[in-house]
């Protein structure tokens, strides 16, 4: 194992703090079949850098070529099992959807859902979202950015792993077009407060519903199994909506 940061970089280890922990997971037969038959079409093959979920910083996604058309782009960070992104893609076929996720079973389930519905406006990217927003996506290419129910890392010592930070807000400002939208949702009230503070402090964004205000439930966000767990545990859901200025 590397003993210093320099040695870690030289040996291909990730040296930054990320908001996820890599977990192994087996695909069930249906997921495996969908992956084998459709991943080449739906999952964007990107060159890697340091880690399995990294993206070579020299690589820039050609959005129009990826979807074979010009259309508004919605990017969901942490798409999980694909419930939200597939539902939205089916409901709004005039938009393109890019699902960013690190866990292979979640990606495979999303591929399965999309192919069952015959969708052509969904693509998937297995990568660290921060890298995708930093270099992979062209500047100002995103019409809407979705971050729904990111891991709250609720223990104080783990807050450094939270996804929504001042640095992420800077990256989001780079990727979202002027006038575009950043939508978020969480079932942890304290995390919602942090999101409001962090994004509200960034001059590139304005809270659509007023300073420090929460948004009504986004009608385009289907209730997922993850959200259902939050309701079952007695936690309320907070939606937030910011506009890129």
Structure description:
Keywords: Methyltransferase, S-adenosyl-L-methionine, Transferase, tRNA processing. Helix 5 (104-116) links the parallel strand 2 and strand 3. By secondary structure, the chain is an alpha/beta fold. It is globular and about 45 Å long. Helix 2 packs across helix 5. The longest helix has 14 residues, at 29-42. It contains nine helices and seven strands, in the order H-H-H-E-H-E-H-E-H-E-H-E-H-E-H-E.
Strand fraction equals 15-25%
Number of helices: 9
Q: Helix amount, in percent?
A: 25-40%
Largest sheet: 7 strands, mixed
Radius of gyration, CA atoms, in whole angstroms: 18 Å
Total count of strands = 7
Mean pLDDT: 90
What order do the SSEs take from the amino end to the carboxyl end, as H and E? HHHEHEHEHEHEHEHE
What is the strand arrangement across the widest sheet?
Answer: 3-2-1-4-5-7-6
Shape: globular
Segments where pLDDT lies below 50 for 5+ residues?
1-15
Derived from helix and strand composition plus strand pairing, the structural class reads alpha/beta
CA distance, first residue to last residue? 45 Å
Quick gist of this model?
This protein is of the alpha/beta class and 245 residues long.
Strand and helix layout:
Elements: H1 5-10, H2 29-42, H3 63-67, E1 73-77, H4 83-91, E2 96-101, H5 104-116, E3 122-126, H6 129-136, E4 142-148, H7 166-175, E5 176-186, H8 189-200, E6 205-207, H9 225-232, E7 238-244
Parallel strand pairs: 1-2, 1-4, 2-3, 4-5
Antiparallel strand pairs: 5-7, 6-7
